[in-house]
Each structure stands twice: as structure tokens, then as C-alpha cells.
Design a protein that fits this description.
eight-stranded antiparallel sheet, 8 helices, about 35% strand
Length: about 325
Amino acid sequence: MFPTSSSAVAALLLASLASPVVGVSYVLTDSFVGSSFLNGFTYDAISDPTGGRVVYVDAATAAAQNLTYASSDSFIVRADHTTVLSASGPGRNSIRLKSTKTYSNGVTVFNIRHMPQGCGTWPAVWSFADPWPGTGEIDILEGVNDQAYNQATLHTSPGCTMPASRDETGVPLQNDCDTAVNDNAGCGVQLQNTASYGPPFNANGGGWYAVEKTDTYIKVFFWARNDASVPVGVRDGNGDVDTANWGTPFAYFPNTSCAIPQFFGAHNIIINLTFCGAWAGAVYGDFNCPSTCIDYVNNNPAAFADAYFDFAWIKHYS
């Protein structure tokens, strides 16, 4: 080992926190468009682990109530928006989809035209695998009650933290990813782009979210529908993508103090919409929403006419 000056050490430290400029080329391995979503995802009709005012239904119920349906270039995932609920009965029918395959390193791109909006809603596009949190969780698109911005978050077992300063366009919220601290807030990064979430996202025609996972980092990207900088491979859903031309991610999670292979395994992709629960319900009063969260969800079904996802496609590259 040769002697190193203090300035060189500082430079090396800063370099270790920066998002790598050199990207990686990936080849398309899975594509879900229109009715092919039903070949790649199952209905995860489980009790809501977040305690939401929701019932995740099975495939037969989803079909009977038209909660999922497809065209040649669209797949809709929505909640019931016609039923007034009994205060003593079950929650609002909704959907939780789980990919049939698990995915390790690579890139997944989500072309989303519309996402659920409205008071009481808690939509999410994310990934994890059991046993949780031993194999980690990556939240790609998540929020509640028409919050202003999307946030991407990691949740892990103890020992994974993020540097306070790193090369990302978003704003870090917490740096400890451990589910056992900060009330399981995880290490989130807020994307301060009003077109990234809720009604503004929908009014703008949605956009593209992408997550890149390697053994040395996890990155999350977003391009709004009218963003001139969206890479051609992302925009067109090409057969290969090269992340070298993707620019700076809004969320960058390096392995500086989090060994990615130790804390993250192969994940299922999850798409779900719940109501109230541990997050949306807990902060409901902060959003100028009427009544209480439970009462509003029970008695205002028409308020959830826009509580749906419209996916143009999802593509995974390895």
C-alpha cells in the first residue's frame, strides 16, 4: 500500500458517493402489454399487511366487478367505485397483483398513463420477496392522499444505511433503511417534480418510471410524458436499453454502507391500491381531506372513479 494524501482520500470518498457515469446495456427478457399482464401476474388476495380499509380480491371477483381489464395496449387496475360500505363490514374491493417471476439484477421500466388519485388512496408500484424484510423492499412509485411528490424508498433488515449526500436529483428524507427504526419509514428520496404523482401526473399523461438494480447500487428514474430528455429506448420500449444515457437518477442508493446482495434478493413486482391504513390513514388530516379517512372511504364510492392504474406496458431487461 502506497501513502495517500488527505486530499486524495477526500476525492476518493466523494467519488464513492457519486452515481457512476458509465451505464450498463441490458436486453429485454419480459414484456407485459395489454392482456399479457394476466400471463405474468397473479391476484394476491391477502389481508392487507398495512391494515387498510380494503379487500384484495381474487381473479374471479376482479373479472366480475371489472376491476381489471385490458385492451391491446392498456391494462387497467382499479378499485370498486360504486359500493357504499357498511361501517361494520369489510373494506373497499381493490387489487393487489404479484408477478409470477422474481427478478434479480437488471432494469424494469413502467410505462404508466394514469395512477390512482384521491383522498384516502395509497397506491404503490414496488418489489419485495418473503421473508420480509430479509430480502429487502424497493418502493418505486408510492404515496398517499394526492401528496405533491412521489418518493422512492428502500426497506431492509438492520445494517443498511445511505450517505447523506449522493448524486441524485431528489431530496433524501431518511438515511437508515432499517424497518425497525423511524416507524419503518425506510430510506426514502422525494422526487420534487409535481408531474411525478397524483392528479398532475395524470393530467400530463403519466410517464415512465424505471428501476435499475446491480450488486453495487439501486437507482430509480422518472421521465414525465412530455419530457424531451426521455431516452429513446425507454420511450419506445426497445429490445435493449443502455443506462449510460439516462442521466442522473432521482434516487440513488449506493453500496457505500449497504451491501446490496446481502440486503436484497430476487423480488416479485407488486402493484396495489389500498385505502387509509398505517400511512394514508395516519396522515389523512394533513391533506385537507373531508371527514375521517375510514368514513370517507366507506361513504363516497364515486370519489374513487379515478382511483385506477392504466399501464401501457411493463418491461424487464437483464
